[in-house]
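Quick question about two entries, pasted in order.
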Amino acid sequence: MADEGEHVVFSDEEAAFLRHVRFGELPPRVRPEEFVELQETDPRPDRPDNHLDDSEWRRP
């Protein structure tokens, strides 16, 4: 093990192996044909139009 202040230099292959051990594999790539098209919707109102009393209305 390296002492405090010493730098250990790894080869590219060793660094790739250590990255794989630490982080694992990436998930499979999403292909363009697997994308979905977003549909814009109206934003949710802050409170219902028929509210009776502000004290009864609580935000989730």
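Here is the second entry:
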Amino acid sequence: MINANNRAEIAQTIAVVIPTYKARNHIISVINGIGAEVSRIYVIDDCCPDRTGDFVTSDCKDERVCVIKHTENQGVGGAVMTGYQAAIKDSMQILVKIDSDGQMDPSLIMDFVCPIISGEADYTKGNRFFDLEKVRSMPKLRLFGNAVLSLMCKLSSGYWNLFDPTNGYTAIHADVASRLPFNKISKRYFFETDILFRLNTLRAVVVDVPMEAKYGDEVSNLKISKIIGEFFVKHMRNFTKRIFYNYYLRDMSLASIELPVGTILALFGSIYGGCHWFYSTKTGLPTPAGTVMLAALTVLMGLQLILAFLSYDISSVPQRAVHVRRNSNKIAK
């Protein structure tokens, strides 16, 4: 538990990063809602046509605010990474990212920070799906899109315990953030899910934090229907990389054999059986029982091996926080 005396010390290490683009109407209220537990607020104007950065500079009197302006639009990921790098340079320890559109409640910041401070996590992210009653208030298309994206994210990132991957309410320990390859992380809307893949390669612990999103008059720039295809391709790319890194480059186990053998058997059985079925329908001749058994057996064996691999992969979700492990090693030395 974090007591009242420790909260003052923690406040000196917490920074909030707010990427902003076309959110002039909400940005000041978002900043005003950030409590005294935060010592720095970085507003990243991502070449906003509304000149939000200048608006914050002239109208916001909060001394904690630092406005950084991009000369070219880099996307939400690029803006967040700019904020991360600025916060790390200023020796901040916990970096919280919230959006500028007013959908995220700033009063929840400590809910995201506490698991990191206590050593339970390296990275925390919001999950709007814990309260089933409140889920009903979400737009139906967004609800369906998030369900599809969550399944793809579990496969590509390896974090089977997470949901709501596009949720932008996050917090990360600076020790972990400093080890991320900022030049390789996606700078557009794939940022939230791409960073999970990068965190898995570091074996960082990621924890979901229950939250409720607010939907008002803000206009989301993210259109689920337009990005699912793009996200699918990128998820498959990350899945392939993760499997290679974790099961062949860094280490090898029984799961390293189960996946390729299972895939080959399942494909062979499906193709072999499909060809004979097609031939049978064209000629009207019955397929021999042995052929049917061979196709069915290889498919079943392949699926069994793939399921065994998935079971191993699910049980391999990182459990010990990286920043705790690194600090322990420093103390030991």
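Reply: Residues 127 and 164 are 6 Å apart (CA to CA). Residues 254-283 form the longest helix (30 residues). Hope that helps.
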